[in-house]
């Protein structure tokens, strides 16, 4: 072969290597596995995995539900550790439907942000600048009724009005720098005042409570309580353990325990509603966990500001494989 031709071939190879080297460097992806609690783990114990790729604009990250390998989130970060959001972010439910769409600049919300319920109904919508609401932020209940409205009055003050999911007014008051301030009024479903509360920089200073007939409440011990399973957390744990069973015909060589996440709501009557799989693993496990939650006996409903209210909970359901 002619020496000049050989030298030309070598130069072309070197040129291609120089041109392709940045592509190979910047297209490298870092893969990490995470467990139910989003802690790094081995692949066999994972519920999520993420791919992080260095781009000219930052570090682009995609998180996946491991069971279905469908997207849970995708977005751009300005740092390699993916701590500071800096771009558009999309979140998804296990079904693949969108959960929320947001934009961040240096870690702060910017522009329009929208969230959705798993049934496709809009949950939250607002316009933001440097993390603060601009003009209005609106939220809705799952059934489409307006949930609450936050209207910005000036740089520091906002007014909030909220409604129950039947359209009745639930509460109203002022926010200063994002914290409750001055007098807030809360209402029973029948329109009677349930509590009159005074706040200073987000801290409750004075509170008066009234029953549904407008009479002052003597016993205020139950005005704010979380939803509870009858018998308490230990009884709830025993109920889950008693109902759980490993799916027949499934055996794993390494995995000794499997955790599925179920989201559900305890309504004002203590009934379980809107139960759905939020952290899936395998259809057999998912269906068993979901059925157990849906079949739960009635709970003691939550109270807030002296009214029965809906309570939302994410429950890890853990299956243990017997020898």
Query: What is the domain tally?
Result: 2
Report the principal-axis shape: flat
Strand content: over 45%
Biggest beta sheet summary: 16 strands, antiparallel
Radius of gyration: 26 Å
Report the order of strands and helices. Answer: HEEEEEEEEEEEEEEEEEHEEHEEEE
Overall helicity: 10-25%
Multimer state: single chain
* Total number of strands: 23
**What is the end-to-end distance?**
69 Å
Number of helices: 3
What is the fold-level CATH name, i.e. the topology of the largest domain?
Outer Surface Protein A, domain 3
Average pLDDT, to the nearest integer? 89
Per CATH, which architecture of the largest domain? Alpha-Beta Complex
**Poorly predicted regions:** 1-26
| Class by alpha and beta content | mainly beta
CATH level 1 class label of the largest domain? Alpha Beta
């Amino acid at each position: 072969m002619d020496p000049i031709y050989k030298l030309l071939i070598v130069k072309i190879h070197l040129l291609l290597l120089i041109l392709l080297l940045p592509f190979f460097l910047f297209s490298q992806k870092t893969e990490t596995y995470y467990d139910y609690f989003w802690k790094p783990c081995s692949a066999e114990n994972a519920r999520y995995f993420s791919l992080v790729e260095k781009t000219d604009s930052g570090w682009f990250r995609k998180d996946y539900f491991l069971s279905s390998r469908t997207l849970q989130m995708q977005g751009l970060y300005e740092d390699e550790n993916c701590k500071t959001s800096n771009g558009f972010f999309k979140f998804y439910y296990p079904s693949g439907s969108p959960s929320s769409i947001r934009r961040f600049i240096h870690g702060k919300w910017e522009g329009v942000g929208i969230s959705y319920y798993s049934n496709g109904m809009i949950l939250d919508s607002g316009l933001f600048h440097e993390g603060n609401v601009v003009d209005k932020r609106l939220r809705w209940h799952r059934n489409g009724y307006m949930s609450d409205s936050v209207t910005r009055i000036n740089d520091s003050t906002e007014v909030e009005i909220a409604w129950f999911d039947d359209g009745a007014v639930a509460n109203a008051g002022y926010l200063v720098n994002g914290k409750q301030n001055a007098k807030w009024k809360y209402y029973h479903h029948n329109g009677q005042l349930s509590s009159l509360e005074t706040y200073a920089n987000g801290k409750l200073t004075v509170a008066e409570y009234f029953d549904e007939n407008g009479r002052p409440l003597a016993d205020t011990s139950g005005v704010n309580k979380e939803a509870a399973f009858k018998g308490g957390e230990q009884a709830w744990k025993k109920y889950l353990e008693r109902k759980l069973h490993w799916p027949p015909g499934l055996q794993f060589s390494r995995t000794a325990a499997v955790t599925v996440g179920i989201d559900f709501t305890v309504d004002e009557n203590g009934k379980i509603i809107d139960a759905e799989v939020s952290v899936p693993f395998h259809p057999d496990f998912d269906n068993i966990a979901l059925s157990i939650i849906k079949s739960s006996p009635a709970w003691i409903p939550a109270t807030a500001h002296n009214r029965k209210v809906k309570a939302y909970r994410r429950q890890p359901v853990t299956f243990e494989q017997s020898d």
